[in-house]
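I'd like us to work through together how a protein chain folds, taking it slowly. To get us started, please write out a protein record for me. Go ahead whenever you are ready, and we will take it from there:
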Amino acid sequence: MNTPVQIGLPQVILFIIAVLGIGMLISSLMGLFGGRHELELFEDETGRQYRRWRKRRRELRWKRGTSGIIMLILAISLLWLTFAVQSYLGLTNDIKVARVQATSFENDPHNMNLQLTMLDKDGNPTSNKLYNVNGDLWRLECVMVKFPTWMNIFGIHSSYKLTRLEGSYNDSNLERNSKHIVIDLNGGAGDFFNQAHNASWSKPFVDATYGNGVFEPADGKAYDIYVSQTGLYAKLANS
């Protein structure tokens, strides 16, 4: 599984804002519920007097806590803004993971030559292979491990892994009865996906585990494949 961590200047700024917000939140709560020290006069058995500081029990200090309440509201607002902005950055910062170009044969329209170029998280090719696939459409599949929204503050993108390439037919009769070619990619789903899907320990840290796929016609055009926080989608390549 690939789990990109997207750390840039926006994430650093948001992290600093989050730290400030948490600090203000703790400070405001301590100000509202904090105890206080008072200087008291004591006298021992010999009549000698002395003074010492005595800590009073914690209590809610409404009259003196106006500034603390304002700081509390400001801290919560900063934290909410941080998570909202980071969630937006995570949802819009998609990663190009592959390029697919398939061309059907003129004398055999239900077969295609398909070139699949897989890319790393930086857009560099990791493999470039040519396949012969049955069908009118090609389909690229992956498995996804989607993390909770709160983990977006650390710039963690959903985990993904390209797992399968296959063809399908426009005609449902051909889809039911004709030969299919299925190509496994990257060793299939893998242990991490299976463990995250079944293990109880992963529930607080995993929002969902599922399969996902994108399909396009074998029209000779090149398609760039992107992975978002929720799955794959295809766009016509610029060149």
Q: What stands out?
A: The mean pLDDT is 77. The longest strand covers residues 108-119. The two ends are 29 Å apart (CA to CA). Residues 64 and 137 are 70 Å apart (CA to CA).
